[in-house]
Amino acid sequence: MKMTRRTFAQGMLASASLVAFPSWVRAADAPATRNVVYGGSPWLGHYPAYLADSLGYYKEAGIEQTWQGFATSSARMSAFMSGDVDIGCAGIVSALALMSRGAKQFAIIGIPESFGRVEGIAVRPGIKSVEDLKGKKIGVTFAASTHVLVLDVLKQAGFKPNDATVLNIPGPELQAAIKTGQIDAAAAWTPHFENILREPGVTLLADDTKFSLYQSHKVTPGPDVLLVRRAFAQKNPDLVKAYLACYYKGSDVLREKPEQAAAALTKLTNLPLPEQLAAVKGADWYAAAQQKELLTGVYPDGLQKLAELLVAYKQIDSAPSVKDWIDPSFA
């Protein structure tokens, strides 16, 4: 049920050693480059980057985006650490785990969106309340936002450590696990979230709006942050600014033209169009003009409280000073 910070760090370092990219990718460190290696996935936090590419915004700006897909934020963070990704969106939980160890290879340069209804805990028939999870098996990807959600929801219900069994299962495998009865509940994010809820008899027990910090600060269990590798940003500040200008044009489409955005995104997520549209509309997409306030206002306080909560849940050993990783200079 528990994963120590040391085990998590070792896992990320191990996964980093397995990520091999051709030498031309590392040439992205060259000052004159117009190539950006982006660490992505079908999760909604990556929608703006995908749209900016598919709609031709990067091409118009003379930028080539190389998309590298990762199944988890922890694997993506390993790529940041090894220098194989330049920019990417990640769940703050994985970033905080490295920040708590003093890793300074990356900085937070943006907040893509706020979500609360596109990830949650789905349950098999017969489970009507959190209390019904006693004695049951819950599948979740460890060290992810959904892991934090499960721990928080169980704590709110007064669960003791052995009242339920929490199993570490990769996101793409959760649907099969709940379908075959290997687990009684699955905590997942989009698009796995919607796919699981399509299974006969499976219903939603709780989404991120039930998270304690969401109720008090509107902070989800693992809010998305847009990261840049510091070495890349220092050598290519103008490129980063140009990239972000295109990126937030993608965000504008998500916010202002959700139908157009959903139609383009189905190739990335393989979701049916109605569910893809619901996912787009289920998040609040932040504009470029909002970034300065987000990065310098009260939002970092919520991230700091989340870091402290992760310490209480024994997900990280200590809470870093989150503001030390925030770089508002590109906002």
**Biggest sheet overview:** 5 strands, mixed
Write down the overall mean pLDDT: 90
Strand order of the largest sheet: 2-1-3-11-4
Backbone shape: globular
What radius of gyration results from the CA coordinates?
A: 19 Å
- Count the beta strands: 12
Order of helices and strands: HHEHHEHEHEEEEHEHEHEHEHHHHEHH
Would you tell me the structural class of the helices and strands?
Answer: alpha/beta
Poorly predicted parts: 1-28
Structure annotation, total helices = 16
N-C termini distance: 39 Å
Helix content: 40-55%
The fraction of residues assigned to DSSP E strands is: 15-25%
Q: What do you see in this structure?
A:
The protein has 331 residues and is of the alpha/beta class. The chain is built from 16 helices and 12 strands. The strands form 3 sheets. It has a 5-stranded mixed sheet, with helices on both faces. A 5-stranded mixed sheet has the order 8-7-9-6-10. A two-stranded antiparallel ribbon has the order 5-12. β7, α7 and β8 form a beta-alpha-beta unit. The longest helix has 20 residues. It starts with a helix and ends in a 19-residue tail after the last helix. The N terminus is likely disordered.
